[in-house]
Design the sequence.
């Protein structure tokens, strides 16, 4: 699926340009991304100690806390890498926050010391929804967020 990331990234850059509050920016970024075709749930999990805690998001109720190394988000954090999951039901240890989620992409977002500060989590109701193009564009969003931290 071709998504209009160029417009979304332009909108994100504009909305965050004069705002210094991270939570306000993450809230608006999740709202902008949620408008992209195929995105069922979009949000951030923030690193707090040894777990991820749900932050700003758009979509149905989410898991509140995820342990390091658990589920797609926890593994992305622990391994400091993006993960694209074609079918969440086949991912070992997947944490099912919503039974409607079928595929997922998680992007780690780094602070200035290259530590994972949070992860960007995007779910779809369709199988095999995300590809390398999505990963590249969402990593670009992550780079924008790194500058906001």
Sequence:
């Amino acid at each position: 699926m071709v998504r209009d990331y160029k417009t979304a990234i332009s909108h994100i850059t504009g909305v965050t340009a004069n705002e210094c509050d991270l939570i306000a920016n993450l809230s608006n970024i999740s709202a902008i991304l949620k408008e992209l075709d195929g995105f069922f749930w979009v949000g951030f999990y923030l690193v707090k100690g040894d777990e991820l805690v749900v932050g700003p998001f758009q979509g149905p109720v989410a898991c509140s806390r995820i342990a390091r190394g658990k589920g797609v988000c926890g593994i992305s954090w622990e391994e400091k890498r993006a993960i694209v999951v074609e079918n969440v039901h086949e991912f070992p240890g997947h944490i099912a926050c919503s039974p409607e989620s079928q595929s997922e992409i998680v992007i780690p977002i780094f602070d200035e010391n290259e530590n994972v500060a949070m992860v960007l989590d995007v779910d779809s109701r369709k199988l095999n929804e995300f590809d390398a193009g999505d990963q590249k564009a969402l990593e670009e969003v992550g780079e924008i967020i790194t500058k906001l931290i």
Observations:
- Residues 42 and 60 are 10 Å apart (CA to CA).
